[in-house]
Design goal:
The protein has about 240 residues and is mainly α. The protein folds into 2 domains: about 1-120, no CATH class; about 150-235. It has 9 helices and 2 strands, in the order αβαβααααααα. A two-stranded parallel ribbon has the order 1-2. Strand 1, helix 2 and strand 2 (about 80-85) form a beta-alpha-beta unit. Helix 1 crosses helix 2 (about 35-60).
Length: about 240
């Protein structure tokens, strides 16, 4: 769920033109003791911390101002977290329904209905247009949705930065060699061949290869990086 929420938060930050005002309610199913106040309070606190942490990560990637999850998706940790007891009182199939489960459902319904008047009412045609806008925005943001979470996006961008350094190292040396060989040719040396290129590039190529191996094997995010190793090696 953490992975999904990271991507959702980042997508909402990007899709400013869709003008959505999302909100959410968390429902925890089959909680053994719904009345365990202290335990549930601690659970709420940890959930809030995790959501805020994810929002900050996504905001950093998108260069947005968001200090908490509720800055992006409306959420009150005291009102919008629900704990549901088990549906059955005892072991099915002969167990009767648990009365407190129905009470939890009713409370959830009231919470959702309470939120409804604060939202702008849409006609069916407006709702249809809004869905099309949202879908277009999602298709446009396919870069974000091709990753598992925000950390994975940050890791991929770090790899792209390294790839840029490797390719520039190779290109700059190649340009330097080209100038030298061109000078020799202009001065009548007609024995310039492929071996001259290979020999002059050998040292730089070995250094770049060593740097790549080191990056993929020693970086702290090496477990995430491994999925792109063959593709970027092939590019180099």
């Amino acid at each position: 769920m953490q992975d999904i929420f990271q991507i959702v938060v980042q997508a909402f930050m990007r899709m400013k033109k869709v003008r959505l005002n999302p909100s959410c309610v968390f429902v925890h199913q089959n909680v053994t003791d719904v009345a365990a106040g202290d335990k549930n309070m601690e659970g709420r606190r940890r959930l809030q911390e995790k959501l805020d942490e994810m929002a900050k990560l996504a905001a950093k990637e998108e260069v947005c101002e968001a200090e908490s999850f509720s800055d992006v998706i409306a959420f009150d940790v005291q009102e919008d977290v629900r704990y549901f007891a088990q549906l059955w009182e005892g072991s099915p199939p002969m167990a009767p329904p648990n009365p407190s489960y129905s009470e939890c459902v009713q409370e959830l319904k009231n919470t959702i209905l309470k939120k409804a008047p604060t939202s702008h009412t849409l006609t069916l045609s407006e709702f249809s247009t809004r869905l099309k806008d949202l879908w277009s925005a999602l298709l446009y943001e396919n870069f974000v949705f091709s990753f598992r979470n925000t950390l994975e996006i940050a890791t991929y961008r770090k790899l792209e930065a390294e790839f840029s350094k490797w390719t520039w190292t190779l290109r700059s040396v190649m340009l330097s060699i080209e100038d030298k060989l061109l000078y020799r040719i202009e001065n009548g040396d007609l024995h310039v061949g492929e071996n001259d290129l290979i020999e002059n590039m050998k040292k730089t190529r070995e250094e770049v290869t060593k740097s790549m191996i080191q990056f993929f094997e020693e970086d702290r995010d090496k477990d995430t990086l491994i999925q792109w190793k063959s593709r970027f090696t092939s590019k180099i």
